[in-house]
Amino acid sequence: xxxxxxxxxxxxxxxxxxxxxxxxxxxxxxxxxxxxxxxxxxxxxxxxxxxxxxxxxxxxxxxxxxxxxxxxxxxxxxxxxxxxxxxxxxxxxxxxxxxxxxxxxxx
Length: 107
Fold this sequence. Notes:
Elements: H1 3-28, H2 34-45, H3 48-57, H4 70-78, H5 86-106
């Protein structure tokens, strides 16, 4: 690896660190919508079942009054047009893709 490649890698890592700092800041802010709240919790827990449990235990219900399922939350998170911060959307998608690949490797 030459000096130019090393400097490019360092720059890439610095950008990643800055993006993660910004993500942490956004996760600390109060969500502006239910969708954003779900994305924040999913990034925090990195697990659909844990996110679902938290949401249902805290009294959130679907419009018909039923509890949320992992399928409901998965559909919301996988929605590429969800009205949430693009940084939250990006990281939630990275996590769900990673989790999906990890499960498929078990089979």
